[in-house]
Amino acid sequence: MSEPVEASPPQRPVRLLVFSSLYPSASRPSHGIFVETRLRELLKTGAVEARVIAPVPWFFSTDPRYGEKAQMAATPHEETRNGIRVWHPRFPVIPKVGMTLAPLLLALASIGPIRRLQREGYDFDHIDAHYYYPDGVAAAWLARYFGKTLSITARGTDLNLITQYSLPRRMMQWAARRADASIGVCGALVDVLRGWRIDGRKLHVMRNGVDLQRFTRQPDKGLRQRVGLQTGEGPLLLSVGHLIERKGHHLVIEALAALTASHPQARLVIIGEGPERAALQAVARRLGVADRVTLTGALVQAELPQWYSAADLLVLASSREGWANVLLEAMACGTPVVATKIWGTPEVVSSPAAGVLVDERSGASLAAGVQRLLAQRPTSGAVRTHAQGYSWDETSQAQLRLFRQMAEGPLAAVEDVAPGDRRRA
């Protein structure tokens, strides 16, 4: 008679310490929401536990007149968001040398909270850091100090902008060699790391997904009428993002002006807030389209699906993007896009069902792209089907495989499956 086979004990969840200054808080609920979203999706697997260290620059006043700095000052030192415990240690920002010293200051500010976590019994397995500089460099020091494995996720401007500064670039290269794994949210970012001669077994593409339950086509509930369009009129263009130059909202206003002859009723809604608001209003007045441009200010994520659904198309005119979440959010709502052909964007807008890419970052080029898309606009169903190839499930499973291997120890190659790859295979 054969001996009974003992069942294997269930695997204990991998314990993560997520480290990033790009993480939301009660006072800045949209700041770095893409980091929180990826973590929340990973936690749905039930195979991971997580605590978050999200350092915040110190500021002396919460007076609203100080704008975003006041919001930083109002950030709670500790909070629970969506069931996840988050600590926000403060670090000083020193004029003139702040960029160079930032990694060290982030690391020093975080040692105390991390030791407290360990004293409370949360002896984490792995540090999951987001944004290569200064966060990734600081995390590399912390990983060495606490004797933990480390992964760093590159997200865009960290590798496509900050690398132009010599000392930060050298620090990032050191951190990449020190890290047990580097993750890029698009292949173009991983190519930068590969150019630094980082061991290929350490490099992984894990693209952001989209919440297909939250972002789905919805009735516009009178949004088109609110901005002066009746049903059937249009087109309605949408531009979403922080009001800063690199997002290119001014170019979308120029594109709207260029469309006036062919589409005199076309309107533009810009969603976001930032320092360029007054400048954008001035551009709209100068080009004679101020009455057809609406700036809504910042909106919470729950409000975006209605606007995506109300629009005929989204225009993204960025000069730099690692992986633009707004593209997938719009597509998931059945809305095609016109976007500049930069970094990870061609990996998202990878078929005619998604929309149109333009080579030149200019108002005239964007207007031509809008004309092309309106002439052969894909159905909302086809656009939604394209977005469905980018669910979070495959990225979450790729992370889980990587983090389990990190918790076990030695370096080994981990198979990556990026959202959309199976669909295109």
What does this 3D model show about the protein?
The radius of gyration is 23 Å and the shape is globular. A hairpin with a 2-residue loop joins strand 4 (78-81) and strand 5. The chain is of the alpha/beta class. The protein has two domains: 14-209 and 394-422, 3-Layer(aba) Sandwich (Rossmann fold); 223-388, Glycogen Phosphorylase B (Rossmann fold, 3-Layer(aba) Sandwich). 47% of the residues are buried. The strands form three sheets. Strands 4-5-2-1-7-8-9-10 form an eight-stranded mixed β-sheet, with helices on both faces. A six-stranded parallel β-sheet has the order 13-12-11-14-15-16, sandwiched between helices. Strands 3-6 form a two-stranded parallel ribbon. The model is unreliable at 412-425 (pLDDT under 50). Helix 4 packs across helix 6 (166-178) and helix 9 runs parallel beside helix 10. The chain is built from 17 helices and 16 strands. The longest helix is centred in the N-terminal third of the chain and has 22 residues, at 98-119.
Main β-sheet, in a few words? 8 strands, mixed
How many helices?
17
Structure class: alpha/beta
Architecture (CATH level 2) name of the largest domain: 3-Layer(aba) Sandwich
Spans of 5+ residues with little confidence (pLDDT < 50)?
412-425
Shape: globular
Number of β-strand runs: 16
Short characterization:
The protein is an alpha/beta fold and 425 residues long. Helix content is 39%, strand content 16%. The strands form 3 sheets. An 8-stranded mixed β-sheet has the order 4-5-2-1-7-8-9-10, sandwiched between helices. It has a 6-stranded parallel β-sheet with strand order 13-12-11-14-15-16, sandwiched between helices. The protein has a two-stranded parallel ribbon with strand order 3-6.
